[in-house]
Specification:
heterotrimer, A alpha/beta (295), B alpha/beta (392), C alpha+beta (82), A: 295 residues, alpha/beta, Rossmann fold, eight-stranded mixed sheet, two-stranded antiparallel ribbon, 11 helices, 10 strands, 36% helix, B: 392 residues, seven-stranded mixed sheet, six-stranded mixed sheet, 12 helices, 16 strands, globular
């Protein structure tokens, strides 16, 4: 079964049902073999390149937790110097911790300087590799080990840092969200991005059965519900202009999303209604901003 | 042909002749003149290179790491806080066995913030597996840069190499310098031919997670490389440089009037120039004094112990201190004397440690002569009592 | 001197994660398959392969997550006991 065409092979040590592993495979298969991948420290790098095993069939480099943006900038510059950048894709990827928090500076510099690099954030909404600690993209009311639910706490207080808005503020030429339940859409976005020159960003929701307290076989369903509740709108911006939005006749109630994950089970209780109201408000903002409902 | 140049400018023009492909640096006093001159050379078509203006030193080091991994020659430059911010990346580059040549313009470390010269900054990364060379003069700084590329990029070495120069003294000072000529550099320095690189035709994975069953040997390998291949290469390259450029390059260390010396000063960097004058003066008074200037601080040249073991007293003068213990150079000299001297019937010279020049405090010839007459085991030179006492 | 710090491509294939399964494994019935390829696309291990209307899982790598079963639109894949 050794298919030379698969660029991210089986044999990695991701949890059964890992959304990030699936996303990573879809991304690199869309990008093709003329791609150099730069990865921050995190689940993906650890489970796919644990000596003596590597799942990668493209050149891959992992340096530190926060510098994929800068390492990728150096690689892109070297390829420019050698005159071979046009035929080679450079992808710099990280989890939400490595992208939105500790690695944001390096990605910011990469975007601002306009390097021709596709940056991807696999967002599982916490520092999963170190055991489920909250990050800058953990939504309100999430149960994590550093924002645990208890007598005095309803979980994480802050809402998600908006990477889409930050990427747009940096004038990235292509900015999009994607979901693993629509693999062809995800791959089309990668291919479209790679055809454009300049800094590009794709934000993928990576369902994490272990960290989210969900069943491995529900991973795709959860991704679908995340999108169809309006929590994770699927949008595309090209050169700063919103060009595509996936619309729905009606949206699922957000409780359908909470029901599938233990990290939100406390939000189904009466006393936490105010948190659910806050989620509904955020979703209403998405609906208005993107016109999510078909008229 | 010699030109009267600022140190930073001389170094930048030398580096340009070495043809780096990717340069990335972040402004910090007193190194900034080096990268400004490089940017100017690129802007005026005198150097073809990608110049990445990064948002911090951590990214500067990461950019050159990525470019080095892609198989091209790289260069960066920093000081003090910038070096400390790069520290993680330098350990990373050494562990990944990627050559990066850099200049560290030695400057004191915060707090308090101080932009003047001492050698504390580079001491924070002395454990990283880097090659650390120290220049006494601007000319030597230029010459060491050319050699640094050849040493770091050797396929049996593949480690970062930092050329250290004393901030302001060598970076902003002016000297008549001969920039290593392009034709001779081309003859001496081959293009970078990486042992491995990120290549879509040969897709390797760099930087895997390595467990206890594999990690120890990676450290052992760097240690062996530093102590064997690197030491050999430094000496070889210095000899070759001397032959091709017609200018003496000393290799691991320089001896100054040590042959019959009963007291030998040991130091690193530009202060050696002052100590040489002290040695001359004391020799005039028939004192048997000499100087051993360490050029390669890492790998530490145990070879110097052969010379020091013949003396009665060693005075280590350094512009750095491991707070809570002694000076780093002193510590390395003593441990070297001990391990090399075990077969010497345990007859070790007396070794004194003098900490001087911190935060750019001037060190005069007179103070060094005082040190010669002094017999302290460990002392800070020039402590002003009036600056001590209350915090405000 | 060097120590092992770099890997050649795809050595992960030597890590047979199929040994992770304890209770259940997927079984491809090959009765109603429409060739939609959702199983092939959505397996996190990428260990489902095939063509047209016949797909199979490589049990050397399958961790038994059950995603293929849950996404098959015609229920042509079931979980059975190991």
């Amino acid at each position: 079964m050794v298919d030379e065409k698969i660029l991210f092979t089986a044999g990695h040590t991701a949890c059964a049902g890992c959304g990030q592993a699936l996303a990573a495979r879809l991304v690199i298969d869309a990008a093709g073999k003329n791609t150099i991948v730069v990865n921050n420290t995190g689940c993906l790098e650890v489970f796919s390149t644990s000596y003596p095993y590597t799942s990668w069939r493209v050149p891959f480099i992992h340096s530190l937790f926060e510098n994929a943006g800068a390492v990728a900038a150096g690689i892109e510059s070297a390829l420019n110097y050698l005159g071979i950048k046009d035929n080679i894709n450079v992808i710099a990827q990280a989890g939400d911790g490595g992208f939105a928090d500790i690695g944001l500076q390096a990605f910011s510099g990469l975007w601002e300087r306009g390097h021709d690099v596709l940056t991807i954030c696999y967002d599982n909404e916490a520092y999963m590799n170190t055991g489920i600690q909250r990050s800058g993209t953990t939504p309100t009311g999430t149960n994590t080990t550093t924002t645990p639910v208890g007598k005095n706490s309803v979980g994480n207080l802050r809402w998600k840092k908006s990477l889409i808005d930050i990427a747009l503020a940096h004038k990235c030429v292509y900015v999009a969200t994607a979901s693993i339940h629509l693999p062809i859409d995800l791959q089309n976005k990668v291919k479209k991005a790679l055809k454009m020159k300049g800094p590009k960003f794709i934000h993928i929701l990576a369902i994490c059965p272990l960290g989210w307290g969900s069943e491995p076989q529900d991973t795709i369903k959860i991704a679908e519900v995340a999108v169809e509740t309006g929590f994770w709108p699927l949008v595309e911006y090209e050169n700063g202009v919103l060009t595509k939005v996936r619309k729905y006749k009606e949206l699922l109630p957000i409780e359908e999303y909470f029901k599938l994950q233990k990290r939100f089970s406390h939000l189904l209780k009466e006393e936490n209604k105010h948190i659910v109201e806050m989620w509904k408000q955020k979703i209403k903002e998405n609906v208005e901003k993107y016109n999510l409902l078909e008229s | 042909m010699k030109e009267f140049l600022e140190g930073a400018v001389a170094i930048a023009r030398t580096v340009a002749n070495c043809k780096p492909a990717v340069i990335s640096a972040y402004p910090i006093t007193p190194q900034t003149h080096i990268v400004e001159e490089l940017a100017s050379l690129i802007a005026n078509g005198k150097l073809k290179a990608e110049f990445i203006n990064v948002e911090s030193e951590h990214s500067a080091a990461s950019c050159v790491l990525g470019a080095s991994a892609t198989g091209v020659r790289v260069y960066s430059s920093t000081s003090s806080q910038g070096l400390l911010l790069m520290a993680e990346v330098l350990f990373n580059a050494a562990g990944m066995r990627l050559p990066i040549v850099m200049c560290c313009v030695n400057r004191a470390v915060s707090a308090p913030i101080n932009i003047w010269n001492d050698q504390q900054d580079i001491m924070t990364v002395r454990d990283a597996g880097l090659i650390l060379l120290f220049a006494e003069t601007i000319q030597e700084a230029c010459d060491l840069h050319v050699q640094a590329f050849k040493i770091a990029e050797d396929q049996n070495i593949m480690l970062p190499c930092i050329v250290n120069i004393d901030g302001y003294i060598l970076s902003h000072g002016y000297e008549p310098v001969e920039i290593p000529q392009q034709e001779l550099v081309d003859k001496f320095l081959p293009p970078y031919n990486p042992l491995y690189k990120l290549d879509v035709n040969n897709p390797l994975t760099l930087g895997p997670l390595v467990g206890p069953e594999w990690y120890l040997e990676t450290r052992y390998a760097i240690q062996e490389t530093l102590n064997n291949e690197v030491k050999k290469k430094i000496v070889e390259v210095a000899d070759e440089f001397t032959k091709i450029f017609g200018r003496k390059s000393y290799g691991l260390y320089e001896e100054y009037k040590t042959e019959d010396a009963e007291t030998i000063f040991v130091t690193i960097g530009s202060i050696a120039g002052v100590i040489k004058e002290v040695v001359d003066e004391l020799r005039q008074q028939n004192e048997k004094v000499g100087l051993l200037r360490i050029i390669s601080y890492r790998p530490f040249p145990d070879e110097i112990s052969k010379i020091l073991l013949k003396s009665k007293r060693v005075i280590v003068l350094e512009k750095c201190i491991s707070l809570g213990a002694k000076g780093p150079v002193f510590t390395d000299v003593v441990s070297s004397l001990y391990t090399q001297g075990i077969n010497n019937g345990n007859k070790l010279p007396v070794v004194n440690n003098y900490i001087c020049g911190l935060g750019g405090r001037d060190v005069s010839k007179e103070e060094i002569i005082e040190v010669y007459k002094d017999k302290e085991v460990f002392k800070f030179i020039g402590v002003k009592k009036e600056n001590l006492g209350s915090y405000i | 001197m060097f120590a092992k710090i770099i890997l050649p491509p795809a050595t992960g294939l030597n890590n047979k994660t199929g040994s992770w399964r304890t209770k259940k494994r997927p079984k491809f019935l090959h009765k109603n398959c429409t060739g939609c390829r959702q199983c092939y696309l959505l397996c996190p291990e990428g260990c489902i392969s095939g063509s047209k209307k016949e797909y199979n899982v490589d049990l050397d790598y399958c961790k038994g997550c059950g995603i293929c079963v849950s996404v098959c639109p015609v229920n042509d894949i079931i979980m059975e006991e190991e």
